[in-house]
Design brief:
CATH superfamily: Peptidyl-tRNA hydrolase
Number of domains: 1
Order of helices and strands: EHEEEHEEHEHHH
Low-confidence stretches: 192-209
Radius of gyration: 16 Å
Number of strands: 7
């Protein structure tokens, strides 16, 4: 049986539910909802887990670590060890400040870029896991404290944009799962706005938990 893991990163608790830093939780919740999957708390993994038995014979294990963002890797590693899944069969969904709101990117290699959740995944898994990066940038106003920004809620206009694109985010995730990272990268990473070529990458500070 072929098994893969999809982990949405975020912070547990009602106070964090609608923050920018919980974009990973929001998107994986939408994925589970689309496919009629039910979440169950599994304490041995320190995560909420949903099993996805697919028509193609593969089994997906969806996970929302309940360890808080900074310790996400501990929960994902416990799942990977139990199911004997390699990093290449793991997809991590998380917020990315260097990508503008409304866009997603798929990548495999690279540093944590200042994202503590990703850094912890690298500590526990090593490199090679697939990254589904949900844009939440740019930070505005620029002088705003990073912790306040990522742990803050989207303003009404941003929330409308995010809600309108949630189906698109799940479509992209389904594409990654069904057709693999190359097809997903070719589709999702393609620049659709000519102004993107003039964008500069924003510096990444250290994320709060």
């Amino acid at each position: 049986m072929s098994i893969f893991i999809v982990a949405g990163l975020g912070n547990p608790g009602r106070e964090y539910a609608t923050t920018r830093h919980n974009a990973g939780f929001t998107v994986i919740d939408a994925l589970a909802g689309r496919h009629g999957l039910a979440w169950r708390t599994q304490s041995r993994f320190e995560a909420k887990v949903a099993r996805w038995d697919r028509a193609d014979g593969r089994t997906g294990v969806l996970a929302k670590p309940q360890t808080f963002m900074n310790d996400s890797g501990r929960a994902v590693r416990a799942l990977a060890d139990f199911y004997k899944v390699l990093p290449s069969e793991i997809i991590a969904i998380y917020d990315d400040l260097t990508i503008e709101l409304g866009r997603v990117k798929v990548s495999v290699r690279g540093s944590a870029g200042g994202h503590n959740g990703v850094a912890n995944l690298l500590d526990h898994l090593g490199s090679g896991f697939q990254r589904y990066r949900i844009g939440i940038g740019p930070k505005s106003p620029s002088e705003m404290d990073l912790k306040d920004f990522v742990l803050g809620e989207l303003n009404p206009e941003e929330q409308t944009t995010f809600n309108q694109l949630l189906t698109t985010y799940v479509d992209g995730l389904d594409l990654l799962i069904e057709r693999g990272r190359d097809a997903a990268m070719n589709t999702l990473n393609r620049r659709t706005d000519q102004n993107d070529s003039d964008q500069t990458q924003l510096p990444r500070d250290i994320h709060p938990r």
